[in-house]
Structures are given as C-alpha cells and as structure tokens.
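User: Structure please.
Assistant: Input sequence and predicted structure:
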Amino acid sequence: MFLLDTLRDGLADLDRRGLTRRRRIADTACAAHMTVDGRPIIGFASNDYLGLAAHPALTAALAEGAQRYGAGSGGSHLLGGHSRAHAQLEDDLAALCGGFVDAPRALSFCTGYMANLAVLTALAGRGTTLFSDALNHASLIDGARLARAEVQIYPHGDAEALAAMLDASDASVKVIVTDGVFSMDGDIAPLAALLELAERHGAWLIVDDAHGFGVLGPQGRGVLAQAGLRSPHLVYLCTLGKAAGVAGAAALAHETVIEWLVQRARPYIFTTASPPAVAHAASASLALIASDEGDARRAHLGVLIERTRAMLRASQWLPIDSHTAIQPLIIGDNEATLALAARCDAEGLWVPAIRPPTVPVGTSRVRVSLSAGHTLDDLARLEAALMRIDAAARP
C-alpha cells in the first residue's frame, strides 16, 4: 500500500540518521533508583527534580482524592468537571506563586502543553506579533503557530536583538514568550531585561517555568520570585508534573487575564478537566514544596548540581554551563551520542540521548537530569562510568 510504504520509507530514513526514538518501560515508580525494562538502574532521565513523584504524602493524597472525588472529572471545567479540589489548587497556587502581580489568580490545566497552547492562542491573534526565543519549548512554538499571529524569532537569550525587533514593530499587540529555564541547555532566560522591554513596549511577557517551579526561588516559587520581578505585564506558567511530582499545569496572572482565559482559551474550554484526585495531590505537593522539607531537598539538589558541574567539566565532551538540575553534555554526532548513552546504560545508568529536532543539528547530547532523590554515591558511580568511557574513547 502506497501510504504505508511512504511511512516505512520515512521511518527507515530516521533510523539511518540516528533519529529513531524508542520507549522504555518503567516497572517501578519514578525515582532515582528504578527498575526499567526489567533491570535495576539509576535514573538520570526524569524531571522529578525534588524526588516527590513517589513521596508517601503525595501517594496518600492521591488515594484520598480518589476516594473523595472518584477516578475522573466527568467533564470540562465549564461543564461539571471543576471540582473543589481544582478550586483549592488554584487558590493554593495563587497564594504561593502569585506575588509578581496584584490580584493574582491561577487557572489549572491538564498538561503544560495545553496550558501553553491556551495562553498563547487567547492572548495573541491576528494583528499581534509574538516574539519567541529561538530555543523555546515545542509547546510554545506550536502555541505561537496556532495563534495565527505574526511570529518573530529572536536569538536565544539575546535581549539586545529583541529590543531592536520590538523597536521596529508596529503591531498593536506585542507578546514576548520565553522558557524560564531552558529544558535542553539548563540556562535561565534574562528575565529582568525581558520585563524591562515588555514594560517599555506595552507588551505581555509570558514565562513558561516548567523546569524552574519548585526548584528555584524562595520556597521553590520559581524564576520570577528568584529574580524578584513584579509587573502586571507578566503571565507565569508552571508545570505540576516535574518538580511537583504529580501532573498538570497552571497559568498565573492578574485576575482579569485569567478571566479572559476562562472565556476565550479554547484548549481550556473544550478539554475534559484532569481528575480531581490529581489536583488534590498537587495541593499536597505545594505544601511540601514550601515546607522545611522542600528547602532541605532544594539544598541537597544544589550540592548535587555543583558536584555534577565539576564532573562534566573534567570529561572530553562539551558541558553547557548550567546552574540548574539540567546538566547537558554535548557530543555533536547522533550515532556517537547514542553510543555514549548505550555505554552508560550498560553501566546501569539511564542518561538519555537528546537529538534533533529536540536540539539543533550538530548539538546532540546526553542530558543528566538531577533529582533530590540522588545521593553522592549515585554521582560517584556516574563519574566513574564516564571516566571509563572517556578513557576508552581516547586514542
């Protein structure tokens, strides 16, 4: 059949270029130490930055939520699916992370991808120009495309280039959109400079803090709190399936912005709400994140980050200067990257290979994702394995 042959040819081409992606099956809960494909392994692949995904308090809260609210929401938020658990989660998020605007309000979503689609399509449209960082996440790229706005890409983290683009724009509505922490490089956007530009040009600044929320800033309140920023121009997006260890996401902004999203954001209006039990567990996670235990987990993670930075600098490969839990090691070639990941796997270490189109061509890498669940012994094992692989690869 011609249609199937076309797909088979495409799959074969991906395989030839070292771009085939394969799923692995986790047999145990997400944690630093897991059983994957039937083998014990130390995982450096997940975004469970605080090690909360299997925390007893969260699993208990999830079970309690299911007993109280059932297994599913039964409908969209506007048609019967908005439970007391969702409302409480939004109140908790606004209280914890809403200090960057007056009259803060939060709106919960089933995934971070849906949250980004919703915010961009609701705040931008024809007559709007979206200014997007070159390394923004795929969900922001797709949201910009769906918004039907003009999209201008500014060089990664380059506030001066963005300033020139804004100066040259005559759009009636301008929207600047950026990751807070960039998922493949682990660096942080120049948020103070971006906000100054947003205020100067009367633009929105949308910050997707999927990889900073829970980890950065006082009480894990994220990149805006870490930078001490406050402005009605800000719209903040956080994910609850990474450091928070549960699932879902939220947008936070001035109450007027959130009400506009409720009325106009199609991915919110026409999507079944997430199970209330998940929202109930997410509220329990917020309490943990803001607690002394959360502070202790962030402090331990900071130690792991500095130890890993020193380890990767000593290798033959090219580390990116990241001060976050995302620690990439650029290899360049796809096959060489896959080979390094396979050698790590043989050592009982899951260090995933990241290749195009997730990253630019020629910058394939392995990415070490750290968790507060890791120990110094885990890092010592990773360091020893990389030293052995490094020595074997040298002439």
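The radius of gyration is 21 Å.
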